[in-house]
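Handout, section B. The chain below has 121 residues.
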Amino acid sequence: QVQLVESGGGLVQAGGSLRLSCTVSGSIFRINTMGWYRQGPGNQRDLVAYVTSIGTSNYVDAVKGRFTVSRDSAKNTVYLQMNSLKPEDTAVYYCHCNARGSRYGQYDDYWGRGTQVTVSS
């Protein structure tokens, strides 16, 4: 069984910073991409950023230049450094990874339970 546990959410004023962390544990053989999605009130869950196994990262336009995604593959951990936060960044942030549990197994998507980020104006 695979578990993703997020930490680091909270309440911050506009212009402030937060750092989210997510550690993957359980029956994992290899992780492909790791990243973050978010879901604001009344919205669907959307991609924020992800990083591949070779360190290539990608961001949604709304966070480019403000957020940085990184990973520590030795620790199966992905981070999201969020700077210059805006009220519109308020959402539940979900950790995601695409991984397989054995050498010849298929890749599946796994999700954390989410962590709330609230940015006040």
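Note. The CA atoms of residues 32 and 49 lie 14 Å apart. Compare this with the example in section A.
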